[in-house]
Recover the amino acids of this structure.
């Protein structure tokens, strides 16, 4: 059994705010260490359950956060930026299941450090379905007929996952008090939970169906201000919807929609507020 693991950072145990996930802040190195240890708990459980291969994709910010020298020696790590498929780089139909670790809720929902890719995005839509990073990434997995078998993070992303994917296993390592405060397990207790949930998710794999994306989806991104929409609209094939900050793109498949999302959000981040 070959498993894919996408690891974000905001949903990692004990991390309450941006000082732990921003490489320029004083708590970042602590956050990296906890993130790496947490990833190893899941990897070890996967191998204990006879996984033949585990591929880990570092999926936060510049995507070079995991400490490769401390990652489980039998895992393979995808690290660094730029990646054509960002948080799902390397995912294809050779995998039997996917696990999302350290995930968070989407931008328009409560939850610790909730957002959708960048802080200029209010909402992503695939056709008329509102999704965050979790949903977009799960759709890519579904394109390859790979089920998302487990999501780990705070209580809010667990709820988001359960609403989107029937029978998905969730591991709640912390509860959101506000967007920058949590009630959290300790890393050791979270590790015990993650090993147990990973074991259960692997045994439950046949009960989780892939999240199949629409055949030719329309990607719609609602931005925080019109300047961001103008930048995103520089990508060919896009249009700004009337009287809104929403930019739409009709794609041939979810892979094209995903890459369009990456390009549009990167362009939108060039907006100047001065």
């Amino acid at each position: 059994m070959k498993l894919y693991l996408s690891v974000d950072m905001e949903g990692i145990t004990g991390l309450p705010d941006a000082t732990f996930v921003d490489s320029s802040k004083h708590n970042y190195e602590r956050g990296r260490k906890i993130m790496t240890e947490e990833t190893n708990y899941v990897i070890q459980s996967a191998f204990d359950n006879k996984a033949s291969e585990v591929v880990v994709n570092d999926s936060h910010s510049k995507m070079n956060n995991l400490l490769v020298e401390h990652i489980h020696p039998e895992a393979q790590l995808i690290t660094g930026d730029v990646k054509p498929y960002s948080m799902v780089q390397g995912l294809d139909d050779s995998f039997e299941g996917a696990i999302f670790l350290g995930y968070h809720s989407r931008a328009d929902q409560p939850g610790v450090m909730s957002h959708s890719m960048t802080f200029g995005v209010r909402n992503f839509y695939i056709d008329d379905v509102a999704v965050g990073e979790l949903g977009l990434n799960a759709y890519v997995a579904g394109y390859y007929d790979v089920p998302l078998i487990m999501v780990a993070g705070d209580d809010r992303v667990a709820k988001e996952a359960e609403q989107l994917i029937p029978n998905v296993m969730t591991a709640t390592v912390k509860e959101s008090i506000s967007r920058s405060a949590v009630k959290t397990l300790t890393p050791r207790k979270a590790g015990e939970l993650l090993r147990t949930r990973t074991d259960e998710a692997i045994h439950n794999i046949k009960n989780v169906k892939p999240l199949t994306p629409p055949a030719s989806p329309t990607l719609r991104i609602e931005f925080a201000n019109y300047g961001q929409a103008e930048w995103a609209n520089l990508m060919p094939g896009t249009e700004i919807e009337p009287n809104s900050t929403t930019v739409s793109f009709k794609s041939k498949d979810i892979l094209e929609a995903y890459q369009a999302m990456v390009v549009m959000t990167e362009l939108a981040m060039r907006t100047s507020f001065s």
About this structure: The first strand starts at residue 2 and ends at 7. Residues 228 and 268 are 4 Å apart (CA to CA). The chain has a mean pLDDT of 97. Helices lie at 28-48, 133-143, 155-164, 187-203, 226-232, 254-268.
